Amino acid sequence: MPWTRDDMAERAAKELKDGFYVNLGIGIPTLVANYIPDGIDVTLQSENGMLGMGPFPYEDEVDADLINAGKQTITELNRTSYFSSADSFAMIRGGHIDLSILGAMEVAENGDLANWMIPGKMVKGMGGAMDLVAGVKRVVVIMDHTNKAGESKFKQACTLPLTGTDVVDMLITDLGVFERNGSGAFMLTELAPDVTVDEVKAKTEAAIEVGNHLS
């Protein structure tokens, strides 16, 4: 059966390495904070000027003034630091963030990413996504493999306005994991339980390769 959103977040958490500075996008990526592996110490960064985010608060711990870039209430740690949004973006643009985990509306077979707007629909703004994909060392994307109409969101070419070109290093969907190989192509390396390679191919518009262990 396909992975749930929590399953995808848990798989993405396996990409975290000890000592990493990590930025989590809004949506499914925020769930990754719940699955940081034991023994792994990572520091979460938020574009609105916070380094060292704690877990989501319980009801009696909510501080309305303490929010992440997605406007969700969060908690602080004893090592948390605060600074201007300009300093936060300087960290991102300066290449000081090791990993960003983002959501997406579309990913293309060449690594292009569209995740900030759908033409004609209200949008609050592009947020930090364009800076993140340009300045962060590694970008992992989490998204549902198809849209509500059953159409592939993993495409030959993005049809929505781009966030960045050739920026996605790994894609995790409810069907499996796709990693960029040395030639820049995406390779299917893991399958969700009871999902077959044929099912993935049938639901994928993008050209993909399949790992030998799955063939």
Oligomer: single chain
Number of DSSP helical runs = 4
How many domains in all? 1
Low-confidence stretches: none
Helix and strand composition category:
alpha/beta
Q: CA-to-CA gap between the ends?
A: 19 Å
SSE arrangement, N to C: HEEEEHEEEHEEEEEHE
Instruction: Write the CATH homologous superfamily.
Output: Glutaconate Coenzyme A-transferase
Sheet having the most strands: 10 strands, mixed
The second-level CATH architecture is 3-Layer(aba) Sandwich
Mean pLDDT: 93
* C-alpha geometry: globular
Task: Outline the structure in words.
- The protein has helices at 5-13, 85-93, 129-135, 197-202, and strands spanning 21-24, 43-46, 50-53, 76-82, 99-103, 106-108, 113-114, 139-142, 154-155, 170-172, 176-180, 186-191, 209-210.
- 14% of the residues lie in helices and 24% in strands.
- Strands 4-3-2-1-5-8-10-11-12-13 form a ten-stranded mixed β-sheet, with helices on both faces.
- It has a single domain (5-210), classed as 3-Layer(aba) Sandwich (Glutaconate Coenzyme A-transferase).
- It is built from four helices and 13 strands.
- It has 215 residues and is α/β, with parallel strands linked by helices.
- The model has no long low-confidence stretch (mean pLDDT 93).
